[in-house]
Write a structure and sequence with these properties.
It is flat, with a radius of gyration of 21 Å. Helices cover 68% and strands 0% of the residues.
């Protein structure tokens, strides 16, 4: 992973954590914008971090975010990310990896129902505990359940004896396609 990707990833995580913790939405948006800006850079952010003014010349990066980038380039850490991460259970962050479950809903489930992990979320769905959660109707809960199942299926390994013949058939089919 490039340094630019690492910085962009951390700024995006700060934005997610700020959303989870109920920070001012504009702070989260500014971190998201800076994350995209760093991700799209054609030069190494470490080179730019040598001169704060060069960072500030990038659209979407203000003084505070420039300081975070410089801190990461110099130390390999972002203290704000460390501080925010300590306030949120790791399982809540894992929940946000489920398609359709964003920071606001994850925060709502965590703060109102004490749901702080994917297994606990599955249990709450099975026991019908989410029906009284605002913004979560039966359809939303059903989609959430499907998303969890999809994520879990994607994490399972397929035995080589099953996967290899499928892969070989795919290769044979692709070889029959002109220009491939």
């Amino acid at each position: 992973m490039s340094l630019n990707d690492a910085v962009a990833q951390r700024l995006a995580m700060i934005a997610k954590l700020q959303d989870l913790l109920g920070f001012d939405r504009f702070r989260a948006i500014s971190n998201e914008r800076a994350s995209r800006a760093v991700e799209g850079l054609s030069v190494d952010v470490a080179e730019l971090a040598k001169d704060k003014k060069r960072l500030l010349d990038i659209d979407g990066i203000g003084p505070k975010i420039a300081d975070k980038i410089i801190e990461f380039v110099e130390t390999g850490r972002m203290s704000e990310l460390d501080e925010l991460s300590q306030q949120v259970p790791a399982g809540v962050l894992k929940m946000m990896e489920i398609p359709g479950l964003g920071p606001k809903t994850a925060s709502l489930l965590w703060k109102t129902k004490g749901i702080d992990s994917v297994p606990r979320l599955k249990q709450a769905i099975e026991q019908g505990e989410l029906l009284d959660v605002p913004r979560l109707g039966e359809k939303s809960i059903a989609r959430l359940k499907e998303s969890i199942e999809l994520v879990e299926q994607g994490q399972k390994r397929v035995p080589l004896g099953i996967a290899l013949p499928i892969a070989e058939e795919f290769v044979r089919a692709m070889e029959r396609v002109p220009h491939v």
